[in-house]
Write a structure and sequence with these properties.
With about 475 residues, the protein is an alpha/beta fold. The protein contains 15 helices and 20 strands. Helix content is about 35%, strand content about 20%.
């Protein structure tokens, strides 16, 4: 993706991309000459929003690309990305009619992403040239963070186990001068992470917890926690086959947290960043945890297991309890946690939960500005009764029997492990794009992290 954006001055003969409306098309064609007008008529191009036309030169190569927009600009800020699949490979540059060149370029580059670890790389490459006043360095930082998240999610579990995921955390932090530790196997018990151990112990690949930090210890503390279930069979509450096919993405929370961490460190934001990722495989074997088991937790709460396929909130509970012990200024957790969130809001609009109304407002504003859609759902305390247990402090799933409010009750469960931190927010993401759209090719997806990067940058740079 990064290679798809360069300075226009680095190109020799790029093809211009001109934004046109139905009303401005005639004037643009007149300026391009009779051949362009004839070609437009032959192709019945009217300049309608989201349509485009490659106008050839006299030698048959592309002379100009006309992209239909509406009177207020692009129908979608990432619309330019739709050209990546339809235009021949080559060099292009943004010409007239783009009100937000940075967003347009970001959409182009996000659409140019390809996961090619297991296939022959494509030879069809597109480059977009940008003017000198566009902040290309910032765009590249965002693209690298998104690529980090997408690549990790798209990697299958046979090549990305708990050890490999923890190693990815370590490698990222060490590349920026950070440090930390990885707690492995039975050491999780002696270090008081019993729920992480219980969820991951059935796999032949030992569970672990990665805990790394970067930055000045005196700066505001920003802590990110990501669900790192590298594959989820459902455990003894085994998933049906069609529900298991995409479970390589169940570490999408961890992947997104690492993408966000990459942006923060590459930008050298003035924060003390900490990332905590419990890395497990929810497998089936003789020592798998069971429905009806009662687990201890780092927080001291006893947790009754209602369903082993709700394992993510268990490992997050221990990780959040650890994060909460130092009361960070901002605590963010991200997880591919519930199907209920997708039923409520679909795959493209992740819900988030927080008690901090000011933080929620900041997220809403930044989400819209960054074209990174998010939607607040309530931490509705009356639903905490659905987590009641007769034999433990809490059940980790809704015990009402009706299946109500699945995403909300999961968030409420997590809230029991955060007591000391005022600004905590939980994101229940999908981590996957099921159908191609501008800026979002099919596959692993970064959700919420462009918004959060802008929020953290503004909170701790502008206000510092």
């Amino acid at each position: 993706m990064r290679e798809s954006l360069v300075r226009k001055s680095e190109m020799s003969d790029p093809t211009p991309i001109i934004a046109v409306t139905e009303s401005s098309l005639e004037g643009e064609l007149a300026g391009l000459g009779a051949r362009a007008g004839q070609w437009s008529s032959l192709n019945d191009f009217k300049g309608k929003p989201s349509s485009h036309l490659l106008v050839p030169d006299s030698d048959g190569t592309g002379a100009v690309v006309l992209l239909g927009v509406d009177d207020t600009g692009l129908p979608h800020p990432f619309l330019l990305g739709s050209l990546v699949k339809s235009l021949p490979g080559g060099d292009y540059f943004l010409s007239d009619g783009f009100p937000d060149p940075e967003q347009a370029a970001l959409g182009f580059a996000l659409s140019a992403y390809r996961f090619e670890r297991y296939v022959t790389p494509s030879k069809k490459n597109h480059r977009l040239g940008l003017a000198d006043d566009v902040d290309l360095d910032r765009i590249h930082i965002i693209l690298e963070g998104v690529k980090t998240a997408r690549d990790l999610i798209n990697t299958p579990a046979n090549d990305l186990g708990p050890a490999e995921l923890a190693a990815a955390v370590e490698a990222l932090f060490k590349s920026h001068g950070g440090a930390g530790r990885i707690i492995v196997g039975d050491d999780l018990l002696s270090e008081n992470f019993p729920m992480v151990h219980a969820v991951g112990r059935a796999s032949s690949r030992a569970p672990r917890l990665a805990d790394f930090a970067w930055g000045n210890a005196d700066d505001p503390k920003v802590t990110l926690v990501g669900k790192g279930v590298i594959f989820d069979t459902g455990g003894l509450n085994l998933k049906p086959g069609n529900s298991m096919s995409l479970m390589k993405k169940d570490m999408g929370g961890a992947a997104n947290v690492l993408g966000l961490a990459a942006m923060i460190m590459a930008s050298a934001l003035p924060v003390r960043l900490r990332v905590i990722v419990p890395c497990v495989e929810n497998a089936v074997s003789a020592n798998a945890f069971r429905p009806g088991d009662i687990l201890s937790s780092r927080k001291g709460l006893s947790v009754e297991i209602g369903n082993t396929d709700a394992e993510g909130r268990l490992i997050l509970g221990d990780a959040l309890a650890l994060a909460d012990e130092e009361s960070p200024d901002l605590l963010v957790d991200m997880a591919t946690l519930t199907g209920a969130a997708r039923v409520a809001l679909g795959p493209d609009l992740p819900p988030f939960y927080t008690h901090d109304d000011d933080l929620a407002e900041e997220i809403a504003v930044m989400a819209e500005a960054s074209t990174d859609p998010l939607w607040r759902l309530p931490l509705w305390e009356p639903y905490m009764k659905y987590l009641d247990s007769k034999v433990a402090d809490i059940n980790h799933i809704n015990t009402s029997g009706a299946g109500f409010a699945g995403s909300i009750t999961a968030a409420l469960f997590l809230s029991r492990f955060v007591e000391n931190t005022d600004s905590w927010v939980h994101f229940d993401i999908y981590g996957w794009t099921p159908a191609d759209r501008p800026g979002k090719p099919v596959g692993g997806e970064a959700q919420g992290i462009r918004c959060l990067f802008d929020l953290i940058a503004e909170r701790y740079t502008v206000k510092k």
